[in-house]
């Protein structure tokens, strides 16, 4: 045993090798038992499932920490430029399997658990996923940090440690009920609190001007503070020894805060004030795509970006020249949620470091880049000036000055074109004076990117055309991607093994190698093996659904899946109309039961709690399901399953089992989609519109292996322009009329016609997302699906080609594109 001397404490030293590397089952077992005994305070004999789970998680983290310490030491002197990914959401999913895979610990962990008589699968099922995001945007952030680590890019993910993540969805009488997501209650073994690295974040108050040796400067006198305490997650690269950090901030009342209240002697007020501060990181706002302009949400946004900027600047050498900040960092803005970071960095540089405005602006412009994730006008965040001025008065001044100088530049180029000035102003005047965060991000950032080719083009042409004209060089595209580690290697072990047996395991970090599978589509034995994997995945899904919800997919059924947030633009209603039409067809005798391709239609979707129409649509899906599933005339050949609480964990069981992937948004509305990529990569065929990344999927897999239907974006724009009349489609299409009439008749609501009346009249008289206009094309495409599925071997061939041709959709490729087009941050070793 080496003696620890006092010099060890100060001199840089290699991490103490407390654990054996490479890991052995004995070493792993010993560490597991240490954690169980000393961290958990229980013996193996007395340990509960939770105790064992926590000790296992700790042990996995210990091994990763060894890599992290070594990695930090290697990177310390490197002075490489880092990516700071600023995102209000990270939809991480379970950590255990992810970290076992990345750290190559699955084998020793299994042996160690077996040696202790513990069922590893039971511990896997015990994990509660951190659901710190709503949907695609949050999951994208999680995929990106995985790829950043795997590619060896120095980076930090910054976000919020919500005490309550996305709500847990239950159904009562078919209607959504939201339950709090208490993911922290049984312990959070993957995170490490770092109270010593807390930052203070200020709010409110006023500004005053001071004469600083002849220059008039503004400064902020805030009114209240909160403390931001970081909680760190290890983000391991795939077996490369690299470990990055995800730093999530938790709001705590500051000591000063406590003291002030303590002095006032008002105990009740003291407790209330503490709650007030800590509310900031209490709950994730459950709106996907449609932000609500709530004050607490702005507090959350400023809270995490202010803490993150300070945190990053604190990592630079004491004497670092901030004029060179762009050499060391790029802050990537994940949508507009962190855009308040722009005036914050300006404030830090100008007010706190005394930098001249113009120089600070030049630095700031190089340090930010902005990703837009939407096309819906209602999704573009704006903050009322009144609110911003009250919460962050200095930031409002800074935004005004940025806008003034920007509009002066616009005038200098285009003259006093007041229409243009009003269009481009960062400050909107109607309906209330408000800051347009997307405009601020566009003016401030070095780059603006959309998330799929079509989306980036529409962003230039429709959402920000004046800006694209003014700053053509800023606009670029980075098509989204998904991590093949979680969504293929882990979620689909059967297919992973089949692929690896055929082409080796290089695909896990080089997904384009899936192309090597293409010739195997013509190999009958490979097709049979592929089909067997799909059948096995359906059995696995059934085990999960049985245990979770008492549901099962029918034997021999085509598994038709639509899982994503519930939003009208995504058109779950179109899928419902298809189901109702098939049902009506059989019941009325127009379709012979024997001609009906047996199908299970599986939905998964959460609705924002305040989104009434979305909740009615959930109710309708459940109502249709309970009628269709139990009508003896259908004999079980058409099933509608809607397991509640769709999340990352359920996705990992559902996606590998799917035959058909529903990607049926109205063209021009879905920015990208990422579920579409996960399904294709797992060998489901897509029925989809020409929208988002569907366009690129279809181009890559080929028209023969994709069921395209519906209007194109220009066609949508044209009929919108001409005046869209949904009722005309209802009048002209007898099948559509029968389906809608059946819903309107109360057939799915126990004869009560009022229940779904709002859904029906919305479809007939408004139908903002043109469900009725695409209905007949969708029905025809579903007929092509049925015909194609009848040829099982042909279907399997097409499915294999989907897998083989979707390597492009790795988030590793997305990150390489960000590096090449935006960040210019080479990987380090
Ligand atoms: C996407 C959001 C979003 N776009 C506001 N916008 C939110 C907007 O809390 N909010 O207020 C939360 C989320 N999310 C999605 O991003 C797009 O709809 C998808 O098409 C895209 O694939 C995904 C990732 O780019």
Automatic annotation (TrEMBL):
Q: Name one GO cellular component term.
A: cytoplasm
For molecular function, the Gene Ontology terms on record are: glycogen phosphorylase activity; pyridoxal phosphate binding
Protein EC: 2.4.1.1
Alphabetically ordered keywords of this record: Carbohydrate metabolism, Glycogen metabolism, Glycosyltransferase, Pyridoxal phosphate, Transferase
What is the catalytic activity of this protein?
[(1->4)-alpha-D-glucosyl](n) + phosphate = [(1->4)-alpha-D-glucosyl](n-1) + alpha-D-glucose 1-phosphate
* GO BP terms in the entry: glycogen catabolic process
Question: Which InterPro entries would you find in this protein's record?
Answer: Glycg_phsphrylas, Glyco_trans_35, Pyridoxal_P_attach_site
Record's keyword annotation contains Transferase: yes
Enzyme class name? transferase
- Swiss-Prot/TrEMBL cofactor(s): pyridoxal 5'-phosphate
Q: Which residues carry this modification: N6-(pyridoxal phosphate)lysine?
A: 678
Note the CDD domains from the entry.
Answer: GT35_Glycogen_Phosphorylase
Protein family per UniProt:
Belongs to the glycogen phosphorylase family.
Q: What does this protein do?
A: Phosphorylase is an important allosteric enzyme in carbohydrate metabolism. Enzymes from different sources differ in their regulatory mechanisms and in their natural substrates. However, all known phosphorylases share catalytic and structural properties.
Which PANTHER family does the record cross-reference, listed alphabetically?
A: GLYCOGEN PHOSPHORYLASE (PTHR11468), MALTODEXTRIN PHOSPHORYLASE (PTHR11468:SF25)
What this protein is called in its record is Alpha-1,4 glucan phosphorylase
Query: Gene encoding this chain?
Result: malP
